[in-house]
Each structure stands twice: as C-alpha cells, then as structure tokens.
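Sanity check

After download, print the first record. It should look like this:
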Amino acid sequence: AMLAEIGYPVLQPVMQSTEAGKQFLIYPVITDPSVFDVTWAIEQQTSDRFAELQAAQAAADHDLLGIYQRSLTWQSAEQAASAPIHQLFYHRLTGGRLDNFYSAEKTIASQSMQDIRKAQWTINGQVYSETLNDIIERAINLLKPTQAGASIVGHGDAHNGNVFLCGSGETASLLYFDPAFAGKHHPLLDLTKPLFHNVFAMWMY
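Expected structure tokens:
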C-alpha cells in the first residue's frame, strides 16, 4: 500500500490473512512474463522484445527517480534500524545465514572454513590483501542498520524476477511484485539487491 500510494505500479493482493500461523496473500493471476524471463529469451535469441523492454525499463527508471525525489527525506538511526530491507543484508551477514554457510566449523573440499576465512587470496593473478574475515567484518560495520541518513520509499527487492513486463509494443510497462522488504530506507540499499541479482546472480533464475 505504501508503494502504491507513492506511485509505484505494484501488484497488490486481492485478499490477505494476518492471523498468526495462517498468514497468506492471494494475488490476481499474472500471465505476463517476468523481466528475467524476457531477458533470458532475448539472450537466447528466442525473443525480439529488446526494444520494447528497453523502452519500458527507461520509462520505469524515469518514474523511479521521481519517486525517489518525492519521498527523499532524512531519517534517524532508530528509524533506519527498523527498515525491513536489513533482512536482506545486515541480518544475513551477522545471523543464521553466515553461520549456516561460513561457520568456522564447516569444511569445503576438505578445507576448514576457519582456514579459508583467514587465508590470503590470489585469484587470476590478482592478490587480495583482505581475508574473508576482514571483508565480513567490514560489511557488518558498513551495513549496520542504526545509521542516520537519507531515505526513500523503496521496493527493496526489485530484481528482474520480481518485475513483470506487462502488455506489448509501445504500451509495454513494468509491474512490481513481492514487496516483502518495502519501506523507507537508503536509496543505495534499494538499488543494491536488483543490481546484484540482475548482473551477478542471473544463474539463480
């Protein structure tokens, strides 16, 4: 509702239940493809929708800048800390996911994660001065939620799997979906997840 109010074209549920243990949302059926599906088809040369996708993306980016400008405000450290988007970054780095994947007790290819995290790396001739432990610690400090600063109303997770390309031709437009991490947060955090998924993690889709 917050996204729709500020001007996002976002798919909203037609029914929802907030009863404990029975939370669910019912959405209208969407037959349009996600932008990931369209870009994959374009890359596989099984689609000729590049021009209309490019135009729809350019229009959506223009509108997004306007939303950022209209909703831009300063927020206190306490307000920033309550933003749902921190579930995507800080809490994953400092909480269960870090332990599940990279705890010192785990092993990878018979190597202890403790040794891997403390090792100095040279990859393709590039020497890295920081260890994984250094990088994790730096990320935790940089992404600390209790930081006052600029905020906008953002989707939080608007990668191409959460955006549909609706319509066709000159009327094609983008429609946002799955705003589980929407809220008021820093604009750079709003852009980080989509850029990561759309560029470096397309293999996940």
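If your output differs, re-run the checksum step. Summary of this record's structure: The longest helix spans residues 50-71.
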